């Protein structure tokens, strides 16, 4: 892997490196297959029995890594935790509409939502929906209560949470800083691998779960090594030091294709790379400045020059394979004269100096250098600042930046996930809206898109909101990259790669030849 995971806690972060590992530890109620179709997971069947009630039948005969039996109580404990304000989860936006988890029986739950929410099954397939055992969750809460010096017992806390109110909020505030200490270090899921060892910054080792009830596996252990430098990953791949190398840069694709013992796996993606603006800082509160920058950036040149032709230009925040995408949108075209005209009419007619923050992904750095050069043509001087991944996420979540480049993968393949987190004003900072963008019309349309049970009504809302986001330019939508994976086919085969970028290990098999 090119990056280290942030945490094994499904509610503790929303980064792709952590998701790649967690999805092998935890099972969700609903799975996505490699074509992003929804299939049974820990729920064998589901249906909306009312506009605001979904019924789920649960898989029987399943045990956690700890040996505890999986039941409806674990589903309730998990969803109640992600929505607990004490946890302050970055992924709470996925499940905040769930008002109650009703345990109907040992293997049946009803999820009651505040409003009709059509994409709920897709949201439940997200890796943040991985079901943790209630035992592990209890083990996380109890030390938090103890560390806060609270005289409230665990059961009393759960009762207060159900009731809500000022007393609960007081206790939640007291324990918030202590939540996650256990779930960030220990795991207890039902999937085919379990946590064996973690060396932060170096590796994570997962071992085979012998009592896994959802299919056979042909391997005993998976080691996720962190090798940030692309050429070092490729060298390890060539020599068989690793079997799989993720996030292959496009410049290395031909080398892997032509290698005697390597093959390149490519997948179109539902990922969007974008240039974001901090709209709480001048001059990015001026739409003319943002639009000028959008007209100055040639997305096709970035694809050809940085990504060697892999991927497509982004017309909107949504990739074409995401439900809700509208192919009839009027996108912003590259036009230097129009960019200069808009800037001359803006609050910065003579240009300005600013910073562009990036992480240490080489393609992102190269994209930043291209943007730096492009904006210099219209009088904007850009300093590129590079940060380590974790620091970059923290700093942009805190609003310390001017501009930044980041990617967002619509892992649910539904427009709600691709737009709500990035552009709704409820999600400033870490949940996704690092542009600190607030537009009441956009908020209203995003709310309409997630609450309207009629599919045509949802599509209309998402078409309108996409056009608004193009015109208002809280970000410049750069490209939808292809995911590239390198595999040493002399040792391993049947590795999958889906449009979300998940490496699918389920069917991996190995050569027995020396």
UniProtKB/TrEMBL annotation:
Q: Name one GO molecular function term.
A: peptide transmembrane transporter activity
Q: Which residues form the Solute-binding protein family domain?
A: 37-428
User: What Pfam families is this protein classified in?
Assistant: SBP_bac_5 (PF00496)
Per its UniProt entry, which superkingdom is the organism in? Bacteria
The UniProt keyword set, sorted, is: Signal, Transport
Under InterPro entries, the record lists: Peptide/Ni-bd, SBP_5, SBP_5_dom
Q: Which GO terms describe its biological process?
A: peptide transport
Q: Which GO terms describe its cellular component?
A: ATP-binding cassette (ABC) transporter complex; periplasmic space
PANTHER family in the cross-refs:
OLIGOPEPTIDE-BINDING PROTEIN APPA, PERIPLASMIC BINDING COMPONENT OF ABC TRANSPORTER
Similarity comment text for this entry: Belongs to the bacterial solute-binding protein 5 family.
The protein's name is Peptide/nickel transport system substrate-binding protein
Q: Which organism is it from?
A: Jeotgalicoccus halotolerans
The top of its lineage is:
Bacteria, Bacillati, Bacillota, Bacilli, Bacillales
């Amino acid at each position: 892997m090119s990056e280290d995971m942030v945490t094994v806690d499904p509610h503790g972060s929303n980064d792709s490196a952590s998701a790649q590992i967690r999805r092998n530890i935890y099972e969700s109620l609903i799975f996505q297959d490699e074509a992003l179709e929804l299939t049974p997971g820990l729920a064998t069947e589901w249906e909306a029995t009312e506009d605001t009630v979904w019924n789920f039948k649960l898989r029987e005969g399943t045990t956690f890594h700890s040996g505890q039996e999986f039941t409806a109580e674990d589903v309730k404990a998990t969803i109640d935790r992600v929505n607990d304000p004490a946890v302050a989860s970055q992924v709470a936006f996925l499940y905040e509409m769930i008002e109650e988890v009703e345990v109907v029986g040992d293997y049946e739950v009803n999820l009651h939502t505040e409003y009709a929410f059509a994409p709920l099954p897709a949201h439940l397939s997200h890796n943040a929906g991985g079901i943790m055992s209630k035992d592990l969750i209890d083990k996380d809460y109890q030390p938090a209560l103890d560390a806060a010096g609270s005289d409230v017992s665990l059961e009393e806390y759960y009762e207060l949470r159900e009731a809500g109110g000022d007393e609960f909020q007081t206790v939640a505030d007291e324990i918030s800083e202590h939540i996650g200490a256990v779930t960030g270090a220990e795991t207890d899921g039902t999937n085919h691998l379990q946590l064996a060892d973690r060396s932060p910054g170096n590796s994570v080792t997962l071992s085979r779960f012998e009592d896994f009830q959802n299919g056979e596996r042909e391997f005993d252990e998976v080691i996720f090594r962190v090798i940030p430098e692309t050429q070092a990953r490729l060298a390890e791949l060539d020599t068989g030091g690793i079997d799989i190398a993720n996030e292959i840069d496009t410049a290395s694709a031909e080398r892997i294709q032509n290698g005697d013992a390597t093959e390149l796996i490519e997948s179109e993606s539902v990922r969007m790379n974008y240039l974001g603006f901090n709209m709480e800082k001048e001059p990015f509160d001026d739409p003319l400045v943002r639009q000028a920058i959008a007209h100055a950036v040639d997305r096709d040149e970035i694809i050809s020059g940085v990504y060697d032709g892999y991927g497509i230009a982004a017309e909107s925040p949504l990739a074409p394979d995401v439900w809700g995408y509208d192919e009839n949108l009027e996108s912003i075209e590259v036009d230097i004269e129009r960019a200069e005209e808009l800037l001359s009419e803006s609050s910065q007619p003579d240009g300005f100096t600013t910073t562009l923050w990036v992480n240490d992904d080489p393609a992102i750095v190269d994209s930043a250098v291209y943007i730096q050069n492009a904006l210099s043509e219209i009088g904007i001087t850009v300093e590129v600042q590079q940060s380590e991944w974790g620091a970059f996420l923290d700093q942009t979540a805190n609003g310390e930046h001017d501009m930044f480049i980041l990617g967002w993968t619509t892992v649910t393949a539904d427009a709600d996930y691709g737009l709500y987190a990035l552009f709704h004003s409820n999600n400033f900072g870490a949940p996704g809206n690092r542009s600190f963008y607030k537009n009441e019309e956009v908020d209203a349309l995003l709310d309409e898109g997630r609450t309207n049970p009629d599919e045509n009504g949802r599509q209309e809302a998402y078409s309108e909101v996409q056009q608004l986001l193009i015109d208002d330019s809280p970000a410049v939508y750069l490209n939808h990259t292809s995911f590239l994976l390198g595999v040493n086919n002399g040792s391993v085969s049947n590795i999958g790669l889906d449009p979300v970028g998940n490496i699918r290990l389920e069917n991996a098999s190995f050569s027995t030849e020396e």
